[in-house]
Amino acid sequence: INNLFWLHGRDRFTPHPDLRRELMRQRGYFAYATHHYQTHQ
C-alpha cells in the first residue's frame, strides 16, 4: 500500500503544472461562459 501511495503521489506531483494550467483554462472558460450568459440576460 505504501508503494501504491508513493506512486500516486509521484504521478500527481509530476503533471502538477500542466494540471494547474488546465484547471486555470477551464476556470477561465467557465468564467467567460458565465459572464457571456449574464450579458445575454
TrEMBL record:
Pfam families: CsiD
Top-level lineage group: Bacteria
Listed InterPro entries: GlaH, TauD-like_sf
GO-annotated molecular function: 2-oxoglutarate-dependent dioxygenase activity; iron ion binding; oxidoreductase activity, acting on paired donors, with incorporation or reduction of molecular oxygen, with 2-oxoglutarate as one donor, and the other dehydrogenated
Annotated TM spans: none
Keywords: Dioxygenase, Iron, Metal-binding, Oxidoreductase
Name the record gives this protein: Carbon starvation induced protein
Organism: Escherichia coli
